[in-house]
Amino acid sequence: MMKGALSPEAAAKLVPDGASVMIGGFMAVGTPERMIDALVAQGVRNLTVVSNDSAMPGRGVGKLVSAGAVSRMITSHIGLNPETQALMIDGSISVELVPQGTLVERIRAGGMGLGGVLTPTGLGTEVEEGKQVVEVDGERFLLEKPLKADFSLIAAWQADYVGNLSYLLTAHNFNPMMALAGRTVIAEPNAIVPVGVIPPDMVKTPGVLVDHLLVRANTGGQPWTQKN
Amino acid sequence: MDAKELIARRVAREIGPGMLVNLGIGLPSLVANYVPASLAVFFQAENGVIGLGARPPEGMEDPHLTDAGGGFVSAVPGAASIDSAMSFGLIRGGHLDMTVLGGLQVDEQGQLANWKVPGMMVPGMGGAMDLVIGAARVIVAMQHSARGEAKLVRECTLPLTARRRVNLVVTDLAVIEPTDAGLVLREHAPGVSVAEIVAATDARLIIGDDIQEMIVA
């Protein structure tokens, strides 16, 4: 089915204070920046953010942190954002640190209808605290629970009119898994192209998962139309 | 040659032809500079590329192609881009031949701590816990001491990255192999005596008769 394209402002209005939000990206590569800018401009508060990292001040998730929009993070790394570290230490943001491979598997489990994942990562470390250890054929694993969110904010390279998405190089990262695990999925593509331009084998996120597309970025050029 | 270059050049000698290798951010990433192209090694960056290449010329960087530290890179012929689930499937699933990671402490059991200094610095573990669990060989590349404090300790006081024993520790003073019996001193850096190494080490070292001088790539 054809998707409507929303302005970033209209898309941001869908996200209420207190929502849980998965945000694609790895050090702000493959992060929906226009969507984040609109959330900051809207003044959203008290978000729970699930993302690989908190990027750095002025980029990606870092912009939400700086704006005071985040009260909780589930993430694997905050080391390159001193603001997140300071806010965690003074208690303004609660941070659950999750090993990166476990984080993506918890998101996958949430999106794929699994009751959790069994992983050896974290056994015998602080990560094990409070978790169930499951023995399978004599080997021990941690039971890590699935993650879902109210929204997934995805950055893609191309989208077509039915919402199929393709990604470029290292800008895939968490996006394809997060597109499964958000109750409402908003994708910010670099370009929107006619159906068929993305060959079916290049589609990494099928359009059936995508609820809304952001309008294309205003790159400055305007086509000639009857209006102008 | 400064300390970091010495460590990177020594670690580079551990890398064999055709291996799939993950280099951590910081010091470990320097190792790639000393691995000859003829070895046809594939470097993985956990953010999603197998076949990481050098930084492209100024003005030719692509914002969609970075390493795990967020720096611009290129890709070598045969490279593949992957998502995070595949990337960590490779790591955790035993498909990675080697990882080289930085360290805050390594103890006598060869256990690594490298992700947290409680109350002071909490960067997070990122991919380190999965890498130590999953890689066939784990090499720790680190300065022997930090601010006068030994980093090779009897028992880690910092939170562990994993229970697994790492395979090799390369510092600016020595090459040390954790074994069932304990930490075995294998090599000393050029111009560094065994006594100096022992003095800079809090952990007990097993000192054999056949300690070699470190050879670097």
TrEMBL record, chain B:
Keyword annotations: Transferase
InterPro entries given in the database record: 3-oxoacid_CoA-transf_B (IPR012791), CoA_trans_fam_I (IPR004165), NagB/RpiA_transferase-like (IPR037171)
GO molecular function, one term: CoA-transferase activity
Domain of life: Bacteria
Pfam families on file: CoA_trans (PF01144)
Record keyword Transferase present: yes
Cross-referenced PANTHER family: ACETATE COA-TRANSFERASE SUBUNIT ALPHA, KETOACID-COENZYME A TRANSFERASE
UniProt similarity note: Belongs to the 3-oxoacid CoA-transferase subunit B family.
Name of the protein described by the UniProt record: 3-oxoacid CoA-transferase subunit B
